[in-house]
Write a structure and sequence with these properties.
Elements: H1 2-20, H2 27-38, E1 43-44, H3 48-55, E2 61-67, H4 71-84, E3 93-98, H5 103-112, E4 122-127, E5 130-135, H6 145-159
Parallel strand pairs: 1-3, 2-3
Antiparallel strand pairs: 2-4, 4-5
Helix pairs in contact: 3-5, 4-6
Length: about 160
């Protein structure tokens, strides 16, 4: 009987912990994926206010990567974005939000990305507060990082 009570107590604790989780993924899981970009010059935006502060700016260019735990983010989106930032022309600022982690920040970024539907991973370029280039998930999946980087470099040449 005591064993059963302990099991029920543990189940209740686990259920309560899961219901109270703000993020879909544990911090330990996403930390290396997030630092994959932040270690290369991207600023992590974690709040609605931080997103608005950056994207409401009416001057300059901003590259936004909506990061994800999926394989196409790891193999294609993140490496492609990092390669693109090695180009001679590049945005004034590079930022990232993490889908499934920074829920409010991601939802805010996605409002700026309209009319495109939510997509993660995805990569956007803003100029003077306007969305000027967007790469959706279906344009990332199955594409080599070098192709994504070339796509971004062309956008940088045109807008930066």
């Amino acid at each position: 009987m005591i064993f059963l009570q302990k099991k029920i107590t543990n189940l209740n604790l686990n259920l309560n912990l899961n219901l109270n989780l703000k993020n879909m993924y544990p911090a330990e899981l996403v930390a290396p994926m997030q630092s994959d970009l932040t270690d290369h010059g991207f600023e992590a935006l974690n709040t609605t206010d931080s997103v608005k502060e950056v994207l409401d700016s009416k001057e300059g260019t901003v590259l936004v990567v909506v990061n994800s735990v999926c394989g196409c983010a790891a193999a294609n989106a993140r490496p492609g974005a990092k390669l693109a930032l090695q180009h001679e022309k590049k945005p004034d600022k590079a930022v990232t939000v993490f889908a499934g982690v920074d829920k409010d920040a991601v939802n805010t970024v996605r409002m700026y990305m309209l009319p495109y539907p939510p997509s993660s991973p995805s990569i956007a370029l803003f100029k003077d507060g306007k969305l000027v280039h967007f790469i959706e998930r279906h344009q990332i999946e199955g594409r080599m990082a070098e192709h994504i980087a070339e796509n971004l470099k062309m956008a940088f040449d045109q807008h930066c």
